[in-house]
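User: My advisor asked me to double-check a structure prediction for DUF2281 domain-containing protein before group meeting. I don't want to rely on an old file, so could you generate it fresh from this sequence?
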Amino acid sequence: MLTLEMAIQKIQQLPIEQRNKVIEFIEFLEFQSNQRQKEDLAHKEQSTQELFKLAGIWKGRNITIESIRSEAWGDRQ
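Assistant: Sure, here is a fresh prediction for DUF2281 domain-containing protein from the sequence you gave:
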């Protein structure tokens, strides 16, 4: 028997008051999960917007991988 089926059977055997508490707890968990998903989506959208704010910051400048490495590492290459 599946774990979910076992859980359902056990919940069905509980007195009505305890069943209602289990249902309330499940609804609470579902609410928390939905809130977390919304927060994650908002964070992802914000990160994407911040990335695009940087687009073009080196436009018109003579920047190469070599010049970046040279500035970061100096003569140690």
